[in-house]
Amino acid sequence: MVGRQDGLLWYKDSGQHTNGEFSMAVVQANSLLEDQSQVESGPLSLLESGPYGTFIGIYDGHGGPETSRYINDHLFHHLKRFTSEQQSMSADVIRKAFQATEEGFFSLVTKQWPMKPQIAAVGSCCLVGVICGGMLYIANVGDSRVVLGRLVKATGEALAVQLSSEHNAGIKSVRQELQSLHPDDSQIVVLKHNVWRVKGLIQVLIV
């Protein structure tokens, strides 16, 4: 796919992949583009006999581009490694890839902290879709949302189908989960200026 820029709009033309055609568009909200996206198609494993499929990742950076770029550079490689170990694609493989990527970024932050302390304030939401063996796997971290557009042939209408739930303190079930995980912390979620925030600071819950 060829990347193009039109003002603050970045987009990639449609490209043919294992499971169909894909195109991407990003509207740049800041002077520095903090977001990343990728489509990988073909072997989802380091083994030649491993499963084939399509990996789609969208990473909504916050506070800088470092985290989203790190995810873009490492998450898919971890996914291929764990798929090779288990010789199949599964929700557990995706979960392990997320965990390995998070641990790797934490290690990077620890190393860069003395010279670049602001890196500890940089983060990213992460949306992933994997199509493999006729299955669509969806994973998310943060308060971005995966939505599937479905065409109704009879009417020509496009329906939006929500496929993931945000991790945001504004959602009651998320607040309840936080409170159950931290029963001794009465300030784990705080209503501040009519907005629920974790520790009174952020809305996003990274789990």
From TrEMBL:
Substrates-to-products reaction catalysed: O-phospho-L-threonyl-[protein] + H2O = L-threonyl-[protein] + phosphate; O-phospho-L-seryl-[protein] + H2O = L-seryl-[protein] + phosphate
EC number: 3.1.3.16
GO molecular function, one term: metal ion binding
CDD domains named among the record's database cross-references: PP2Cc
Protein name, UniProt field: protein-serine/threonine phosphatase
Keywords associated with the record: Hydrolase, Magnesium, Manganese, Membrane, Metal-binding, Protein phosphatase, Transmembrane, Transmembrane helix
Annotated TM spans: 119-139
Family: Belongs to the PP2C family.
Provenance organism: Cocos nucifera
Cofactor(s) in the UniProt record: Mn(2+); Mg(2+)
